[in-house]
Amino acid sequence: MPRQLISSGSPFEAQVGYSRAVVQGDWCFVAGTTGMDPDTKVMPGDVVEQGRNAFKTIGKALDEAGFSFADVVRVTYYITDAAYWDVMGDIAGPIFGDIRPAASCVIAGLVKPEMKIEIEVTAFKG
């Protein structure tokens, strides 16, 4: 089965050499996604809003690939401050509360100082 590349239209995809998502067979791998507003291209200061924006971008990529959040089997959260873990329920709970994929959270520095969260997911349809 051929590989399908999903683009969000970001100029960084060609510049850095990545895709927003890659579909290979029954799998969809969505790249780490930060919280820039996909419509205004503005990075909000609030971590919850950044998380919601990241999930909006991820959801669009999943949909374009023929997947949905219900297909997500793994999610990794990268946050820049451990205190942000306390609001993860506000961000992820409405999406994954019943799906309950395997999850990890890593405290890490991100590419730009205004970025507070990055989320990547793996989905499977088998």
TrEMBL record:
It holds the Pfam family Ribonuc_L-PSP. SUPFAM superfamilies: YjgF-like. Gene3D superfamilies: RutC-like (3.30.1330.40). InterPro entries: RutC-like_sf, YjgF/YER057c/UK114. This is RidA family protein. It comes from Sphingobium soli.
